[in-house]
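S1.2 Input.
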Amino acid sequence: MASKVYTDEWVEWNKKYGDRYRQLDGSLKGMASIEKRFEATGKNELPEAYLLGFKPDGNGRAILANGNPDTAAHQAVYVPGTTANLKNIQGDLDRMGALWQEAQSAAGGKPVSTVTWLGYDAPQDIVKDSPFSHYANDGAPAYNQFMDGLDASHTGDSEPHRAAIGHSYGTTLIGSAARQGDLNADDVIFAGSPGVQVGSADQMDVPKGHVWNEEADGDKVPDIGRYGHGGNQWRYRGGVMINPSDDLFGAQQMNTGEDGWEGRKTDSAEGHSEYWKPKSTSLFNQAQVVAGEYDNVHLED
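S1.3 Output.
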């Protein structure tokens, strides 16, 4: 079996420059992913892409929209979770590309914009970092500011319909944003949430009935994460360590496991990373919420 032998010179070089090299390499990979998205415009009906924010330092930041959010009737702003960084942004861009295609087909001709918001320092290690709340608390004000900015810059004929979407630890950030300030959204969609720091959908700063949740079969994050990020209800028959998958939280539970229904073939989301799988029930349901077509959402029985 082959083995690596490091020279003294390499060890010394890695000590001095290794971290910087890996950071630059990650930034270049992220930039290549963004360039790839720009080159995909017009393919598979994808709209123009708009780079709304970029920073190569550290783990990197990037905010990229499918479709012009300033003129869109429906906006969706997605926050990725643990291990998200500029180097690995390709998967998150693909998710919002898939959501744009599904939501645009549901929107009755009205323009849709889906935004990948990597505007915070996400936890990078599931064990060492993700149990802590400061990543969400530190990033939440920037998310609120961005959502307010979408409001201020909009030039459409009417007020846009806006959804906040979080995956995994990204849902914790959205919960923190609602807890710390005014969440400028009409709907909130959680997928694979470990908890959102509050114990009730009523605390999410959106109209009653407009907090939506998805938990796929086989997704262990909601059960484990509640011990670090679950919310509390200090009232009669209340509870502790509540996450959006619990009935007590009061979210609308969207189906992720239907294999299809009359007139449409769909697939099930079967794990923590499959909520945006093409042709899945979970993706279909998110798109209906983004497009404001609530009657089309398939809820859990």
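S1.4 Remarks. The domain at 52-296 is CATH 3.40.50.1820 (Rossmann fold).
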